[in-house]
Amino acid sequence: MKIKRKYIPILFGLGIALGILLGSMLDFGYNDTALFASNSKKEKLNKLIDYIDYEYVDAINTDSIVDVTVNGILDNLDPHSSYIPPDEYRAVEENMKGDFVGIGVSFYPYNDSIAVIQAIKGGPSASAGVKGGDRIVYADGIDLSQNTITDDSLSRILKGKVRTPIEIKIKRPGEEDLLTFNFNRDRVPISSVIGSYMLTDDLGYVKINRFAESTHKEFVDALTVLKNQGATSIALDLRDNPGGYISSAEGVVDEFLEEDKLILFTKNKSGKISNSYTDNGGLFEEGEVFVLINENSASASEIVAGALQDNDKGIIVGRRSFGKGLVQREMDLGDGSAVRLTIARYYTPTGRSIQKPYELGDKDYYEDYLNRYENGELRSADSIKVADSLKFRTPKGKIVYGGGGIIPDVFVPKNTDYEVEHLNYVLRSGYMRLFIFEQLEKDRPYYNSLSMEQFKNEVTITDAVIEDFISFARFRKITLKASNYKELYRRYLKATMAGQLFGNNAFEMMVNQEDDVIKKVIALSKEE
Fold this sequence. Notes:
The chain is an alpha+beta fold and 528 residues long. The chain has 20 helices and 21 strands. The protein is globular, with a radius of gyration of 25 Å.
């Protein structure tokens, strides 16, 4: 179906809501004794559930009643207190941990086989020689071409404990016989630093897509390489980053500020304040930093942007951030599920709360994007509403505001043309990735033989390929227009192809080539 114009901002809002849910994981401890002390409210709920379980006239799943009850309670709190059921919690925990144990491939169930999109760098499959385009036909003697293999059962077959052996048999294009690979399952990294390269001779670029346990180490590794390549300035891209662990955000800030600088402070319901300061030995204390944010940058992303802005370090570039200044604590409920509960507010070093209002409910809260879209804020900095009562000053006298997100020092408008928004939504979707996979399949041996430099010089996205993609989308009931946006198609198609062949960094390098915010950062860096 064609995505109607009026629904595009709503789709973005829903995406933001999901991202914030996945990104609002902060690492705080709690007191079991205090939490589970006996009280009449808890006993009332237990009695009601037991009464329904034993006496209700029809058979009923009381687990579902518990889920509904928990969700009902949390719905009356704030938008970020949430219940995570067991099936979702496993995936969220794995994503935020920064690795998983398995064979290390991204794949599609495709034409009665498991088609490898890419063997993940640093994983056991890549080390063993598995390549994109390979078909996994058997795993430990189990025929994976059977329709009875579900996503869950496939996950159980391919994942496992560290150093447990697995044998896979692969059909490779151009090879007559099946290839056999024997190796051990191992930890497979899930990178949160998804882009790291030089924009100019002295300006490095790092993109962080979430703040996981491994983010600070990944960031230090990337920053070290860029410094060795000559970077004296860094563009830190936190656009569309929904947040994550506060400790990882603090670690990133610490690399830019000298010792004993305030990063943030938190305040709980009793008024207790906890301060967080930088340590010593930051890698980039002398260099300039540009922090890229947008309306989807939230939570830990805003901690980084706010800490650097309030300490007069660097320049914030882009559009006003999401506006999440609440701190969550996560509690395991013992059955594989968890509750994420808001337990404090955080404040930037100047004392700003950047939490936007949520008194009107979740719907109004997450439709704030739609409000920004309609009031012109995404196109003009003059449309950003600020309150004098929430005005603060940095140590060097720069005026900053609280009350709903980090306002950038340098504003870069969003292209809110309907067709461009529609295209950006589709071009980053699974439709594009599946189409590109099928394009690569037309000559997999050739594409797998290319270096990145050869790929840049030799591979061209023709008008015919663009038309093929439009037809591919139309077959799936998505209507796209081609007349005025061929260069946008061309850039995303080639970037997605580079991503499947060479990884996320290659995608970011190519998709960023015509990015307005990055162009602005490059121009600003030349003024320094």
